[in-house]
Amino acid sequence: MINHFKMIKQTPELTKTKMKPHIIIKTVSISILALVFSVTTIVRADTFDSQINNLRAENNNLQGQRQDLQSEAASLEAVISSLQTQINDLSAQINANQAKMVALEAQIVETEAEIERQRVTLGQNIRAMYLEGDVSTLEMWASSKDLSEFLDKEQYRTTVQDKVKTTLDRITALRAELENQKITLDKILIDQRTIQVQLDSQRAEQARLLALNEDQRSALNSQIQGNSSKMSDLRREQAAANARLFGNGTRNVPDTTGYPWAGVAFPNTSSDPWGMYKRQCVSYTAWRVWKSGRHMPFWGGVGNANQWDDNARRAGIPVDGDPLVGDIAVSNSGYYGHVMYVEAVYGDGTIYVSQYNANWGGSYSEARINIGSLVFIHF
């Protein structure tokens, strides 16, 4: 457990040598200017954060709209696919029925030709047997040798007549059946073509909606990309504002603390044992607390750096504005905030801190900064 104590460092400006009045006024004036610059810098950083937050909120909204459109597009594509399947099936049925219609028409023509052939053939047979059809019953009797022959001739004629009638009736019935089938098939084809037109119209409308959907998604993507580009610019500006906040006291120096993930790629989305992304300020400070032998809670997924003080209060860990060596300094400014490890405390209202990712580049640095509005967690 680290002993908490304040480090008092004598500096020339803190010596007890009596200053002349005009020197004191000048010193106060410089201090006021520095304070104004510091406040202005912080406000400017908050302005960047506000703009970034607004753009992020807008992008979240746009991404939600895009997701809705993507779901709608998937639904439209499914409807179009279903309609196309129905159209394909209906086209196959229409083609099959048209083939049936052609076959029926051919059968009707063939049947009518057969009727005509049967009429001609049977007529010729009758005329050949009964002298072109002019033989009367009396003449048949007179030409017969006896009653038996007459009866045979009469029976044959009756049989031939019956055959003619049966054949003609059968062929006529077949033609009527084929005509009925043709009428029924005509109605089916008309209905199917009507349905096909309706399906084609529905498919065209769905395709129009899908094209509109794609245009909307393209416009949303352009807006999202534009906002992302603006956020990148704002982040760079905020990094510059942070640099101005730390002033010339920030030093990018080699990390000699032994932080185990100093060499991993940045940005990094793998988590340390406390659920923090490596080479971020939160990961470094969590490791420093643990390394000092104190308990570091698992705070991964429960907020950014600017929520550490709230997490600490909920966990019963003291938080106040009075820094001690080994504390975690918390800046609540901005969307993410920032946490630093307090290495030294001076009597002039400044502290010396070590940190990661102060410049949003994932690097280690040290700085002497004003306590200002920082709060400190006493692990």
Key attributes of the depicted protein:
endopeptidase fold (from Nostoc punctiforme); 6-stranded antiparallel β-sheet; 2 domains; single chain; alpha+beta; 8% strand; rod-shaped; 5 helices; Helix Hairpins; 379 residues
Order of strands, widest sheet = 1-6-2-3-4-5
Radius of gyration: 50 Å
Largest sheet: 6 strands, antiparallel
Order of helices and strands: HHHHHEEEEEE
Query: How many individual domains?
Result: 2
- How much β-strand is present in the residues? 5-15%
* Class of secondary structure makeup: alpha+beta
CATH architecture identity of the largest domain? Orthogonal Bundle
State the CATH topology of the largest domain: Helix Hairpins
The level of helicity is 55-70%
* Overall mean pLDDT: 76
Blueprint of the fold:
Elements (H helix, E strand, L loop, with lengths): L20 H109 L7 H7 L3 H100 L34 H11 L16 H7 L4 E2 L7 E4 L6 E8 L4 E7 L7 E7 L4 E3 L2
Antiparallel strand pairs: 1-6, 2-3, 2-6, 3-4, 4-5
Brief characterization of the structure:
By secondary structure, this protein is α+β, with helices and mostly antiparallel strands. The protein has five helices and six strands. The chain has two domains: 68-231, Helix Hairpins; 250-379, endopeptidase domain like (from Nostoc punctiforme) (endopeptidase fold (from Nostoc punctiforme), Alpha-Beta Complex).
Structural summary, described in words:
- The protein is an alpha+beta fold.
- The chain has helices at 21-129, 137-143, 147-246, 281-291, 308-314; strands spanning 319-320, 328-331, 338-345, 350-356, 364-370, 375-377.
- The longest helix has 109 residues, at 21-129.
- The protein has 2 domains: 68-231, Orthogonal Bundle (Helix Hairpins); 250-379, Alpha-Beta Complex (endopeptidase fold (from Nostoc punctiforme)), CATH 3.90.1720.10.
- A 6-stranded antiparallel β-sheet has the order 1-6-2-3-4-5.
- Strand 3 and strand 4 form a beta hairpin.
- Helix 2 packs across helix 3.
